[in-house]
Specification:
The protein is of the alpha/beta class. The chain has a single domain, classed as Spore Coat Polysaccharide Biosynthesis Protein SpsA, Chain A (Alpha-Beta Complex), CATH 3.90.550. 36% of the residues lie in helices and 21% in strands. It has helices at 22-30, 49-55, 75-83, 104-115, 163-166, 193-205, 231-247, 256-281, 288-298, and strands at residues 9-15, 37-43, 63-67, 90-93, 99-100, 117-126, 132-135, 152-155, 158-161, 176-178, 208-220. Strands 1, 2, 3, 4, 5, 6, 7, 8, 9, 10 and 11 form an eleven-stranded mixed β-sheet that branches. The chain is globular, with a radius of gyration of 18 Å. One of its GO terms (molecular function) is transferase activity. This is Glycosyltransferase involved in cell wall biosynthesis.
Length: 301
């Protein structure tokens, strides 16, 4: 594997029962126009993912393989195992059933290198048939110069994202972060770990640049944690745990005002989760992202 040229990206891919999706995720890295990346595939189920990828015709010197040594230890533990193998200046998570658009690293890496972290819009896609469900921020607003509250235009195709606006989102975001800023992932938080990680990053960098184009494809897959029948219950338990941590050790968030804002946002997320659980029980949606799409489509205008 080539050494870091000063702005390379270690992409950490936790793999748990990912034999049928890992090739798609890694192929999206091979298709990147930005060549200076390292992929760290972390087995969290004892599977040999090097062999899985080779069987799919994928082999590349930029691929690194490691494991948690356990089965089902969770995405945070797997990402931390991958972080220990990261050799590049920047770090980016990629779920094993998701994919990057070809220009993602080329667009985000320079921004993250300069400002500590960077993000992009996210496309939500149903995995079974590839149907688009939603985007994190409605991209149709941007060409007209309209931006959601809290997003500040900062240049062609980019805006600035702050913690308050991030906390209003309900679609996962996947920051590219400079490795010296990466806090690691909270292994005691097994459901909304991405939210906690991102808030800890925002606590360190303040506002960060957001590319308005959706360059991360978040796949909603049957059988995944977020699509499981008990996802609402698991989310509620996670929110309670995070609130307890905020009231206790502060969850490694230095800014007291941000801790307070985070706790308030979790209250709103719990209310939204309760509405989702009711809709799911009534058979109106199959998972949380479908619930959000239904809510968006039912709004007047």
């Amino acid at each position: 594997m080539e050494g870091d040229s000063g702005g390379g990206v270690s992409v950490i891919i936790p793999a748990y029962r990912a034999q049928f999706t890992i090739a798609r995720a890694v192929s999206s890295l091979l298709a990147q126009s930005f060549p200076h990346w390292q992929a760290v595939v972390v087995s969290d189920d004892g599977a040999d993912y090097r062999a899985v990828l080779e069987a799919a015709g994928i082999a590349d010197s930029r691929l690194t393989f490691t494991g948690t040594g356990r089965v089902g230890s969770g995405a945070p533990a797997a990402r931390n195992a991958g972080l220990r193998c990261a050799r590049m200046t920047l770090v980016a998570p990629l779920d094993a059933d998701d994919r990057f658009e070809p220009e993602r690293l080329a667009r985000l890496a320079p921004l993250a290198q300069a400002q500590g972290a960077a993000a992009d819009n996210v496309a939500v896609v149903r995995d079974g048939d590839g149907a688009p469900l939603s985007t994190l921020f409605p991209s149709g607003l941007f060409p007209s110069g309209l931006f959601p509250s809290g997003l500040f235009p900062s240049g062609t195709g980019t805006a600035t994202l702050d913690a308050a606006t991030f906390l209003e989102t309900s679609v996962p975001m996947f920051f590219v972060v400079r490795r010296d800023i990466v806090p690691g992932w909270e292994e005691g938080v097994d459901f909304c770990d991405d939210v906690v990680f991102n808030i800890q990053v925002l606590d360190r960098v303040g506002r960060l640049p957001l590319v308005l184009e959706p360059l991360y494809e978040y796949r909603q897959r049957e059988g995944s944690i977020t699509c499981s029948a008990d996802s609402g219950t698991r989310a509620e338990l996670c929110y309670r745990h995070v609130l307890d941590r905020l009231a206790g050790d502060g969850l490694r968030i230095a800014d007291a005002a941000l801790r307070h804002r985070f706790a308030a946002a979790l209250g709103a997320k719990r209310a939204l989760n309760a509405a989702y659980m009711a809709a799911h029980a009534a058979g109106r949606c199959a998972n949380f992202q479908e619930f959000l799409a239904l809510r968006e489509n039912s709004r007047p205008g």
